[in-house]
Amino acid sequence: MIRVEITRDGRGRVTWFKSEGHSGIGPPGADIVCAGVSAITQTAALGLRRIGALRSVTADSGLFSCSVDPDRSGAEAVTEAMILGLTEIAGQYPTGVEIIDPDHTKTRSEKT
After folding, report:
1. What global pTM score does this model have?
2. pLDDT tens-digit profile of 17-35?
3. How far apart are alpha carbons 62 and 4 in whole angstroms?
4. Residue 90 gets which letter from DSSP?
5. Orientation angle between helical segments 32-50 and 75-92, nearest 10 degrees
6. Separation of CA 19 from chain center
């Protein structure tokens, strides 16, 4: 199972995220769930880097984590879009992806 962990600051903004593990849905190298999670988290990191909100990245086989500067303009939009995409995958493949997020059940409109 892929475990996605989200850490937020006191204002509910993402400060760190980590994706770790393998879904086991398909064979290694052809697992669409792993590919989807990887594409979403890596694209988020690229967006965060572009706006100067990426503090650090760790990448290894089955592990991807990023530290985020939530004060940078646009950081919240990037991280919340990432979470939306990951939530859709987790909904379709609940045995392959678990999301651990203190705000996971709230949508953006519910937080404001």
Report:
1. 0.89
2. 999 999 989 888 889 999 9
3. 11
4. H
5. 180
6. 7
